Each structure stands twice: as structure tokens, then as C-alpha cells.
Amino acid sequence: MLFVASLVSLSFAWHNLNVKILRYIELKSGYSDNGPAWIAYMTPSKSGRTLYFNGRGLMKLKGQRRGGSGGNYVDMETGESFWVSGVKKDREDRHWAGSGKVRIEAAAVLDYLDTIKAKALDTSRCEIVHSVIPTDIERLSQLANSSGKGWPDDPAPDPYSFVRNVALSGDLAGPEQVDE
């Protein structure tokens, strides 16, 4: 019984902590293997199926939903495809065919250096950025969990058909407003 109570309290604590995980994130839509890439902190949802980063909610793709984009997550608002993975200790986060510097969130530099067991960053491969946008997790969580907005029971023929068709108005308006 004590074990069950411990699991319940652990689950409660996980949900209430501001958990951040260090990840490699690369935009795949329109770029193949050389899209903009970051090493930064992401905040997982309670279920872990959504990761929040840089003003975005990225939802996990599985199996047939992945399509040919090369991504394993999709932006819940724009449908853009992303590759998200753990940070590689050998510093080979980019695909072998990819190119371009990886942006490293300033707040994550020390954790990244500790992960890769290095004393300094290789500035020929990465650059420190201070421009990671705060994410409105509450708004995106409400969007992901709103009625009729969740994952379909069966995969659709189009891997992106489940992306939300959100009217950009009122509470659901994102950082960019669309005038019609």
C-alpha cells in the first residue's frame, strides 16, 4: 500500500513541477535535414505527448501519421513538422546530410556542456541564443484538450489532417493575428 501511495504522490509532484528537459529540436518542414535547429529546454505535458518550446506546442507523431516529412512531432497550430530527440553525447545531433549551426538556448548551455562532457562550446557548430520565446502552455493545453480537438481514433490518410483548424480570434489568438 505504501508503494501505491508513493506512486500517487510522485505523479502529483510531476504534474505540479515546472519540469524542463534538454532536447535537440529541428524544423523539418521545407528544409529536409538542414532546417533551423536548437538545443534547448522543453516542457512536457502531463501525458508527455506534447512538448512546449519557443511559443509552440509540438504533438508527438507515431507510425502512419509521420508521413514523409521526417519529423516525429508536429506544431499543433501550424502543422509544421519537427524532429525532437535527446541530446547526443558525441555532439552529432544534426543528420549526417544536414548543415548549419545549431542554436543553443543561453539558459541551457551549462547543462548541455555537462551532458556532452565538454568545457566549452564548438562555435563552428553552434551559437548561443537569447531569443527563445516563452510559451503560453495554458492556452496551448486548452487547445489540445478542447472538445473535438484531440487525436483521431484511426489514422487518417493525410498525416496532417488532424492539425487543428483554429480561428485566430479571442482567447485562441496566437502571437500573430490574422485580419480578414
Quick summary of this structure?
The chain is α+β, with helices and mostly antiparallel strands. The chain is built from 3 helices and 8 strands.
What does the secondary structure layout of this molecule look like, with pairings?
Layout lengths: L1 H15 L4 E7 L9 E8 L5 E4 L2 E5 L12 E3 L5 E5 L16 E4 L3 H8 L9 E4 L7 H9 L35
Parallel strand pairs: 2-7, 7-8
Antiparallel strand pairs: 1-2, 1-6, 2-3, 3-4, 4-5, 5-6
Structural class: alpha+beta
Q: State the helix count.
A: 3
| Strand portion | 15-25%
Average pLDDT reading = 77
Helix content: 10-25%
Overall number of domains? 1
Radius of gyration: 18 Å
Order of helices and strands: HEEEEEEEHEH
The tally of strands reads 8
Outline = globular
How are the strands of the biggest sheet laid out side by side? 1-2-3-4-5-6
Low-confidence stretches: 1-16, 151-180
Question: Sheet with the most strands?
Answer: 6 strands, antiparallel, barrel
* N-C termini distance: 59 Å
